[in-house]
UniProtKB/TrEMBL annotation:
One of its GO terms (biological process) is signal peptide processing. Belongs to the peptidase A24 family. It comes from Mediterraneibacter gnavus. Keywords: Membrane, Transmembrane, Transmembrane helix. This is Prepilin peptidase.
Amino acid sequence: MYEIGEICFGGYLCVVSMWDIRKREIPVWLIAAGGILSASLGYFHGKIPLLLMVTGALVGGVFLLVSRVTQEAFGYGDSLMIAVTGVYLGFWNVLYLLVWAYVLTAVFAGYVLIRKGFQKDAAFPFVPFLLAAYIGIVCLGGI
């Protein structure tokens, strides 16, 4: 069941990543669907205790505050996706995932900086980096 859950959640992240790349926004209904999927998978396979699921979602809440303070320099959709991912993975695993997602983001940002130079209003979607980190961690057996 856990492998099916990993595939389902990875597929969900893939759909959201494609949407984020194309539209530069994530619709609320897609985030809500992910929340239901995360809670269902978390509840039925029971590998992550409820407390860790809730605290994992709270990590996304912290990012919502960051989104608010930075006037959405880090988007609300990205913050909500972190909350959805936190429900599925739990507190410690979502932190681990975020470390790798930010490493990948930094590498990409460095590449863009070298290639195109500094652009004050440069922006790119974050969910694809969550997906890449998730796939890497799952393939390495880390979650």
